[in-house]
Amino acid sequence: MAKNTVIQKILEKHIVSGNPVPGEPVSIRIDQTLTQDATGTMAYLELEAMNIDRVRTEVSVSYVDHNMMQNGPENRNDHLYLQSVAAAKGVIFSRPGNGICHQVHLERFGVPGKTLLGSDSHTPTNGGIGMMAIGAGGLDVALAMAGRPFRMAYPTIIGVKLTGKLGDWVSAKDVILKMLELLTTKGNVGCMVEYFGDGVATLTVPQRATITNMGAELGVTCSVFPSDAMTREFLEKQGRGSSWVELKADNPEYDRTLEINLSELKPLAACPSSPDNVKTISELAGTPVGQVIIGSCTNSSFRDLSIVAAMLKGRKVHDDVTLSIAPGSRQVLEMLARNGALADIIAAGARILEAGCGPCIGQGQSPADDTVTLRTFNRNFPGRTGTRGDKAYLVSPESAAAAALTGRITEPSALGFPYPQVSDADKFLIDDSMLIQPPCCGKEVEIIRKKTIGTPPVNTPLPDTIRGVVVIRTGDKTSTDDIMPAGVHLKHRSNIPEYAKVVFERFNEEGKETFAQRAAAVRDAGKHGIIVGRDSYGQGSSREHAAICPMYLGVKAVIAYAIERIHAANLINFGIVPFVFVNREDYELLPQGTEIVIENLRSKLEKKEFPVIAKANGKEIALNSNLSDEDIRILLAGGRLNLK
Ligand code: MIC
Ligand code: SF4
């Protein structure tokens, strides 16, 4: 078992119960939380339902960064609710325009050695500053704000030894794309990654944060860098030097070790439509490109946009390409504006978007049909761009800028000019005026609830017999974007009946009943909806709507080969049983429309009697579930909100 690691040092200080053995359930104290607007409204509605006057964390921040299109009143209604509920409950409010939650949190709040729970799957970004930063569903974050510990499996710790130094034109993004090539997006549930070795000292905090950010795509719980002189320098430049503590591993041993020599890395790309479909840029060179977008919580730091500006300076974006840039934070945008880099970007012909998630969550800028889009983002799941059949590649800022200039995927070193020497700022521009501090007592604050702010739906207790119908059978890697599309539908996050209409929208066939219609018909006939999937079911986003909306439509169980960590927790929180097949071939027995009966489920769960047997068409199907005692208590009650 792993020993003397940074991860264990942080865990030791935070574990409140459980056995520190990989795979065993443990609970940890949460020091900080973050929410964003697309998951935040539900999280705060849930917090209100818990009757908590004031949050009990050291720091809780509510960001508005996802839903900023304001097509119709819904988004702004959400913002007003979030701002007022933050004031009422003692939460700092980051106004729209201030930037993407993970980037701003890194700049202004992240503290080495502390724990952070965020209602967004890329919360691990702050592992770049030495935090144990974990993504979770909104309800788990609401519980943490209420002072409850966070439940998770004690991790298997993967040590990644970094040696060497990144060469010219090679970027932190290429490190994490290499990791995705090595570890893939599958099979890493329950693991945490810790980076160590001489190569660590060569990477700045924003570079480390790019790497920890996309640990989410590996499916690991979080990724952590040590806190060293580089971390101290970053914090000092942010005017927060006093938050620094050293965190280093002493002769660590890991459960598993990998090595990456930074000097040997080449520019890479994740090809359509999975972050682990990795090829070298040189293999793809020459592919015509129609769109390039630079931004997202992965790659929009001051350093990333400075290198892009230096590459674009005095040059023009190719006639066949549109280049859009979404800065990660107002700090980044204002610094670029003040030092002239923004003018270089604009002069080159780039389109400037506001500081926020923007196209990364399908808020505009969908590519044309049959065109290649290059993005510095972290996800290229099918249709996430808003275009069916999209061809989205994930690349570094350097490779993105190279394609913007040439109109083709281009090895940046072949551009014919030297690698621009861009250093980090000597000091970051500090202006916290868009972070609204809550009043010392929130009792008097009026919480603004416009008519689009609903209430979280509550489930009924788990029945003893599930009389199920398979409402959909999907394949491998069903993402939460597949289950609950975002983009133009994002504005309905606070309105479950409306949002539930588009569950599994991408799988609906023209002229046939939609998933929502089929599931509602099963529910109204007094039966229970069942979803069947394969590997990595529920990968991607932490959106608990991927559990809430199916629950609202009467779904009682998901049966798959493997279910991703955050999604499995969300299913349990809303009373949907996450089952895995004991025999993978049984998947074939459950096409859409199959009737399934699972008897004595309550007593079997109470006694933890596994496998549970489901009967379908006269055949028996064995199902397992890795549930803790607390998970079972929640499931029997029909979800966490039914428990006091
Ligand atoms: C995403 O990148 O998919 C999101 C949008 O940030 C989500 C959260 C959400 O769906 O609101 C995430 O990663 O958790
Ligand atoms: Fe926003 Fe994209 Fe980051 Fe999600 S991955 S938080 S949508 S920038």
Which ligands appear in the coordinates?
alpha-methylisocitric acid, iron/sulfur cluster
* CATH class division of the largest domain: Alpha Beta
Number of strands: 27
CATH topology of the largest domain: Aconitase, domain 3
Strand content: 15-25%
**N-C termini distance:** 37 Å
Quaternary structure annotation: single chain
Could you say which structural class the secondary elements and strand pairing correspond to? alpha/beta
Low-confidence stretches: none
List the total number of helices: 21
The strand order across the widest sheet is: 21-22-23-24-27-26-25
What general outline do the C-alpha atoms trace?
globular
CATH architecture of the largest domain: 2-Layer Sandwich
Number of domains: 3
Care to describe what's here?
This protein folds into 3 domains: 6-264, Aconitase, domain 3; 268-415, Aconitase, domain 3; 466-638, Aconitase, domain 4 (Alpha-Beta Barrel). The protein has a 7-stranded mixed barrel. The two termini are 37 Å apart. Strand 4 (59-63), helix 3 (74-89) and strand 5 form a beta-alpha-beta unit. The protein contains 21 helices and 27 strands. The chain is α/β, with parallel strands linked by helices. The mean pLDDT is 97. It is 28% helix and 19% strand. Alpha-methylisocitric acid (MIC) binds at residues 38-39, 66, 120-122, 135, 361, 486, 540-543. Alpha-methylisocitric acid (MIC) is lined by residues 38-39, 66, 120-122, 135, 361, 486, 540-543.
Supply the key terms:
Aconitase, domain 4, Aconitase, domain 3, single chain, binds iron/sulfur cluster, 3 domains, 21 helices, alpha/beta, 6-stranded mixed sheet, binds alpha-methylisocitric acid, 27 strands, 7-stranded mixed barrel, 644 residues
